[in-house]
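#struct-pred
JK: can someone run the complex with WTA? inputs below
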Amino acid sequence: MVEAQSIVVPPRPEIAAGARIGSMAEYERLYRLSLDDPETFWARQGERLTWFHPWDVVFDHDYANTDFGWYLGGRLNACYNCVDRHLAARGNQDAIIWAKDEPGEYERISYRRLKHEVSRVANVLRAHGVRRGDRVCVYMPMIPELAYTMLACARIGAVHSIIFGGFSSEAIRDRIIDAGARLVVTANEGLRGGRRLRLKETVDRAVDGLDQVRTVLVARRTEAEVPMRPGRDHWLDAECRTQRSTCTYEWMGAEDPLFILYTSGSTGKPKGVLHTTGGYLVYAAMTHELVFDHRPGDVHFCAADVGWITGHSYIIYGPLANGATTVMFESLPTYPDPGRYWQAVDDLGVTTFYTAPTALRAVARAGDAPVRAHSRRSLRVLGTVGEPINPDTWRWYHDVVGEARCAVVDTWWQTETGGVLITPLPGVTPLKPGSATLPFFGVQPVLVDDEGTVLEGRGVSGNLCLSRTWPGQARTVWGDHERFRETYFTRFPGLYFTGDGCRRDEDGYYWITGRVDDVINVAGHRLGTAEIESALVAHEAVAEAAVVGFPHEIKGQGIFAFVILTMEAEQADPRQLQGALIEQVRRVIGPVASPDAVLISPGLPKTRSGKIMRRVLRQIAAGEYDDLGNLSTLAEPAVVEGLIAAHREMAATLAPDPPPEVS
Ligand code: WTA
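RT: done, structure tokens with the ligand placed:
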């Protein structure tokens, strides 16, 4: 184990905001308290926020109906907690530092300015008819207007649904329809790694002909003029100029929706995961403070995109609820060179840094020199999230980036969990490279085998479930509570099933082994193989498709598509067809889901009952043909030989990969 540095802090009976956990004994005592007396424990945590009206009940749950509620009866406003309440003590402190695409270009937004900007946007939204409870879809680059829009929605009680910039117009359209949004916020263009992203154009394709969308607000990131449809499209900056810089805030119920975030699962279209106001914000604030050991004066740099849950919780809501200074990074880790992160760290005095293993692998392959070119003196805590981190990358992060003096926190969590659930506490938890270590307060991981038997004790592996509710837990799937129940609570009754496999070692440490369902994790982005398959079969040349993940040096997992062509398409040029199919997926889902390999296949390995044996496909995609295990249930064993031959031929012609765009 890597010993944690000792930080000597007197023990506190409970963890109030600003208090630190000083030792493992203290962690263990508080962890036990959080399970034994959750009401007292979580009531104390609720005090992190400013409430307009106190709650009556700390939490309530009804597992049979998958109904969870926190701080019931309490009233608050998330925007007030993230902005207004900090003005008296730190109005002039930087709330957001925007690190623009070009290196060395920064813009600082103080808490005071943040309040004015957010209020203007909130007034604009109200002027366009947005009311409490209405949904607002947001498709924006990493610019301050994105933060303003989120907080403005929260201020007036509207529910934001942010769509990551790597999704296509079809994906945006589906999400707008599902959420029933009438207003969309976008930007004329985005800038990333020196390239222009035509966001408005993509939104136009999504909303044209969709009468439900009455208003499109367009932030101005570049000088580019874009077509503006009269009556529907409005420039956000022009609208803001006509608005006052003060705006009243709604008193929201603790369980009123704060946002929807679509995420992929094993089946069907992405689900609109719903988070509510009180519990989510308490949990985001608490985990940001304790997992990153946040202290006043810190500069927190989470390099994710706000379009994913990591950005929601650890760029915006957690840090701002804590009155921190948070960095919004518009660029790529490799632009213009692989030292970009560390340059920003030095330029801004970053103390806590958070990114995905895929980004670390992308920069680590350039060696240590780009890291050593910058001092990184200010760094104290280094976090990772999104996928298992391989021990080599962990060590590189710890030894080279952190010079063995910073704690590495490997944080496991999900869109559905709202915040970190399994994680070390920096300076306290002894670390093991590759392990997310131990559960956070109030979190009780349970491992079960495929038959649903709970695996007690240490040295066991199984399906990772959670047996308790925690404040940041998702409450439902937007518009489909039955799908929520069915997806997460039916596989192992009485437990929330995460979809991940996990091992608990002899020391009680948790090691996430990856998804056990048909979800893949590509460059830290979560995608459903079923979605990609249905995009492929929508192409006229495709009769059937099966998509699996395969090991990828930088992305963690790549996307491998096996396709069977229709009779008519069999004569087509295979190279051209492969290109067309990649394009098809980009059009239906977006560049984020581009297959890394498309193999035109002679058949798919199916059991006699017609089920595709994905295990065999995963092994072939990985080039592991030698031990394919038991194939006796296959309807046509010869298919496997044909697939291996086709894969061999393809692997021989594959060009080396360009560095991926990671965010
Ligand atoms: C994976 C991202 C291993 C996991 C916050 C989970 C991880 C999925 C880790 C959720 C980690 C996240 N170690 N695997 N530290 N963190 N994952 O919803 O498979 O985009 O189920 O949320 O990412 O992805 P999501």
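RT: quick notes.
The pocket of WTA is lined by residues 263, 308-310, 385-388, 410-415, 436, 498-500, 512, 515, 521, 526 (CB under 6 Å).
The chain has a mean pLDDT of 95.
JK: thanks, will look after standup
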